[in-house]
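Exam review. A common question shows you a sequence with its structure tokens and asks you to describe the fold in words. Practice with the pair below. Do the first one on your own.
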Amino acid sequence: MKLISKALLLCSIVCSVLCMTACTKNNAQDEPQPVCPAPPGIAGIWELDAFLPFLDSTRQWHGVMDEDKIFYTFREDGTFSMERPAFNFREEGTYKFEYVAAGDSSYQTGHKLVLSSPDVVTEFKIESLSADTFRLDWWFLWCATGYSSSRYKRLITSSAN
């Protein structure tokens, strides 16, 4: 009887392991895409992943359609470019990343990303959501994209990023 019990126990363990392996295996399409290494001089390339439109009372994140696509390229020399392919639009300038402690205002305390181009200076509060995702919020009340908040995912990174 002990031999049969041991055989049944071993069989149930093997079946359980096989079942767990089959149930937890991801399809290739479900696996996250690897982040590509950056060419020399590029600190990172980021793509708009979702956004909150300005004055949208629902506060629901919107998915990105082709016309909404925005790509930021940050270079190690402190310059950036922002591209909106659907509008054939490209903006270039310099960027600065800094920590700001602003007294009583908790919203105005945090990491700030300042994008400067010949036409405009845009300031964002930046929040890291994960190693490959960050969120930009307007620092004040104006933004070139027209979104109050934007989430970006990393496409390319350098080892310095």
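Now try the second one, then compare your answer with the model answer below.
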Amino acid sequence: MVDQVCEVHKEDQKDPIAASDAVIDATFLTMNRELEKCHDLMVQKAANFLKEVVENIRAKRSVLEQSIRHLGVLQKLQRPALLSDGVSRRAIL
């Protein structure tokens, strides 16, 4: 019982994007196995298009994540240092 609770807690702490990517990857594996049996050219083209779209989304998401991280760093660098009472040094000067 304790192990089950710990597993549920671990699942709650997982990164939702990583969990989503894992599901998509598993789905693509299943799709690829099914496509080996499929001889319909249009179905195969549609599957390839879907894979390209997902990879494009992942690439753009990666660029956005990097930009967000850089923005956070820039904001920290530009933020005025706070004194112990919460008043910024700029306000005093």
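Model answer, second protein: The chain is about 80% helix and 0% strand. Residues 17-78 form one domain. Full marks require stating both points clearly.
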